[in-house]
From TrEMBL:
Membrane topology listed for this record: Lipid-anchor
Pfam family, one: Bmp
Protein's recorded name: BMP family ABC transporter substrate-binding protein
GO cellular component, one term: plasma membrane
Species of the source: Paenibacillus contaminans
Family: Belongs to the BMP lipoprotein family.
PROSITE patterns: PROKAR_LIPOPROTEIN
Amino acid sequence: MQIRVLALLLLCVAFIGGCGAQETIEEKKTVKIGIMLSDVGLGDQSFSDAAFQGLIKARDELDIQFDYREISETGDYEKGIADLVKQGNNFVVGLGFMVQESLEKVAKQYPDQQFVLIDSVSEAANIVSLTFKEEEGSFLIGALAGLKTKSNKLGFIGGMDVPLIHKFGAGFKQGAEAVNPKAQVAVEYAEDFGSVEKGASIARKMIQSGVDAVYPAAGLTGVGALKEAETNGKLAFGVDSDQFFAAEKAVVSSMLKHIDKAIYLICESMVKDGKLSDKHIELGLKENGVGLAEVRILTLSDKEKEQLDKLTNDIVSGTIKVNVK
């Protein structure tokens, strides 16, 4: 009889212990994240690659799992986003303004699913918008270009003629003029984020017209412009990530758009709280969402460094308002 009672007690203890273990497992349930990459996808040496690095860091440090889709494999954004929802991800990210329409369609079909739209603002109830103040970082790039140009002719190459890209160009122009009233900025839109050849062709024409520094905000198309500047012995400025290694003899600095940090931030929030509470997250110089990469190739004088530091502080404090168009 005593043996039976002991066995029953042990069974109860095991059952209670098992419940506790199950609860512990549930508490440590891994967060799963899906991301629909922007049009060029991995290998763009810019936006998508930077976002992917943020996911890798979150996987290694926060123990998340992630899956991704590229339009080259899905054929369209909507299918890729829907696939990621069906995979059971806790939230699904649409990377880039071109994803917005498709993301909103899928979000409407899955009202209980959490989504994140990067680089545009959505009014959908289940979509969190994350944007950057690209104009602020571009202002500093423009200031650098304005200080170092010899011809007073600069070039801006946009991937598309859309409001997001206008922010890069407007900030660049304002920054150049702030330090060099004689600076002129030629502007051209490639209408393509994935053509190295087109970027090179546009940069070549600008250089032939007297431009001695180019700033492309055009993904892989922009890489073509950087390389063309290098070929012709001109200056260039990268975008989104540090693009020095794309053209080491030309790239003075890059406008860093910390998409990797933003991706990590939302992953961290999801792991901690199980949801994304903010409806719109906007990151600028003050929030360390944008900034400058290391200045290479050229040496800045102490006076020039002081100028850049003051401009940065004035933007952060609100003394300088940077144009968005």
